[in-house]
Amino acid sequence: MFAQKNAIVRLLQDDDPETVRMVKESLALRGEEILGDLRDLASVDNARVSRHIQDVLEEITSHGADEDFSLLCHFFQNDNDLERACWMLANALEPNIDTRPYETRINNWGRQFLVRISGIVSNRQRVQALAEFMAGELCFRGNTDQYYCERNSLLPCVIDSRMGIPITLTILYRMVGARAGMKVEGINLPGHFIARHGEVYFDPFHRGRILTKADCEEILARQNLKLRPSHLEPATPRQILLRVLANLLYVYDLQEATDKHARTDAWIKALARER
């Protein structure tokens, strides 16, 4: 515990905002080496002091998670773990989120779904079973009311609300399917991210609806584009992560969230650079 605990408590109760700011900055600069002491200090019986210490804890945790994700973007390869990258992104943008319970929930869903598809041999039937489980039983659906929202791109938030955008819902279908031995691939269709299992294309944003080639052509026709074979190729983990970040960048641009916009832009540049 801090030898100067009592002095820190007194200073954080000071009526001078500048004094409080300097103490908090000094503590934050010491970083992760004092996390344990700070957590102890946050439990003091003084709401004002506890609130200030929580601010410091959040700043330290956020900085560490930001650095970790930035490093991942610089060295991310197509054989890297997309799921881990998504959890790290959530930690970088929302440092108070503990992703471990969400990972446990995904594992449990995967085990439940494995029972559902036992004995199913058809790709189409497996897709239908996955859609029934994810959209029917778990109620995941597209967020049509608040499409351009940060929470739609962060997996823990999508799991909480059961609403997301096409790419994050596809990632969740992919994660649950993988735990049941079902390979779900993301398809980077311009304007609307979709999924594929074997030869079957489907749309997690619209409750796992199975798509024909004509459906895909119609999606592109709305953008005055013609469907090409390359449009239906599976997206790599790096392409998927880039599109998640591009969605966030657009949201932060709309919201004029300059700090998060700058951080996300830096991550995109690191991830997109030639390997």
UniProtKB/TrEMBL annotation:
Alphabetical list of Pfam families matching this protein: Transglut_core2
Protein SirB1 N-terminal domain ranges (all copies): 106-245
Family stated for the protein in its record: Belongs to the UPF0162 family.
Xref: PANTHER family: F-BOX ONLY PROTEIN 21, SI:DKEY-261L7.2
The name this protein goes by in its record: Regulator of sirC expression with transglutaminase-like and TPR domain-containing protein
Organism expressing this protein natively: Terrimicrobium sacchariphilum
Organism placement in taxonomy: Bacteria, Pseudomonadati, Verrucomicrobiota, Terrimicrobiia, Terrimicrobiales
